[in-house]
Task: inverse folding
């Protein structure tokens, strides 16, 4: 959108309650979000 402006990079943390950490659904959600975020970072 604004090619003359430098990109701002900020760290993003994905967190969950420790009881949900081993949930298959949570892990799948984290994986999906991480893959999407990586795609945004490459642009």
Result:
């Amino acid at each position: 959108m604004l090619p003359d402006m430098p990109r701002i990079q900020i760290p993003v943390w994905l967190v969950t309650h420790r009881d949900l950490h081993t949930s298959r659904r949570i892990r799948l959600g984290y994986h999906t979000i991480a893959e999407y975020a990586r795609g945004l970072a490459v642009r």
